[in-house]
């Protein structure tokens, strides 16, 4: 009985990253158990017109992969990508909304925006992972997830291709874990 309640605790896995993070995502996603009972939301800094990412991920994993669209419901067993040049928000009814407001940390989509929305909607049922990147985006969102009782994981800065983003997060709040890519995979597979 206790095992079942632990297994069902998390509903969403959020992964944010920028420069150097795609390689890590291409290691993490194929290594996740195919029966994980959660939705995955990816927020990556990418330029408009970069739509091949959906195809690349579809060829690497068995989960359905799609760019999130306005009013799409968040469904377990699916991978959603924040579209380029829009902030991806999650509403209380667990649907997505897209926002074209100002950039946050020079980025749209902003990892902070999505993580902060997820903290409000999912609270302790959220897992947030921050990977390699070259700006401060993601740290405030991770702090919001942790304050809401969720789990926060940061790629170890020494392993990241571009260490600024994970190092900034580590320097400004205490994530639940600061670990290697291999350990990120192990943690998610064990607890989700």
Topology, please?
Elements: H1 2-7, E1 12-17, H2 22-31, E2 39-44, H3 52-60, E3 65-67, E4 79-81, E5 87-90, E6 96-99, H4 111-122, E7 126-130, H5 139-147, E8 151-155, H6 164-172, E9 177-179, H7 181-191
Parallel strand pairs: 1-2, 1-7, 2-4, 3-4, 7-8, 8-9
Antiparallel strand pairs: 5-6
Helix pairs in contact: 2-7, 4-5
Characterize the structure shown.
This protein is an alpha/beta fold. It is 34% helix and 20% strand. Helix 2 links the parallel strand 1 and strand 2. It is globular and about 35 Å long.
Helix-residue proportion: 25-40%
Order of helix and strand elements from N to C terminus: HEHEHEEEEHEHEHEH
Low-confidence stretches: 1-7
Question: DSSP strand (E) fraction?
Answer: 15-25%
- Characterize the main sheet: 7 strands, parallel
β-strand number:
9
- The count of helical stretches stands at 7
The structure class reads: alpha/beta
Read across the widest sheet, the strand sequence of neighbours is 3-4-2-1-7-8-9
Mean pLDDT: 92
N-to-C terminal Cα separation, in Å? 16 Å
Q: Whole-number radius of gyration?
A: 15 Å
User: Outline, from the CA principal axes?
Assistant: globular
Provide a quick synopsis of the model.
This protein is of the alpha/beta class and 192 residues long. The chain has helices at residues 2-7, 22-31, 52-60, 111-122, 139-147, 164-172, 181-191, and strands spanning 12-17, 39-44, 65-67, 79-81, 87-90, 96-99, 126-130, 151-155, 177-179.
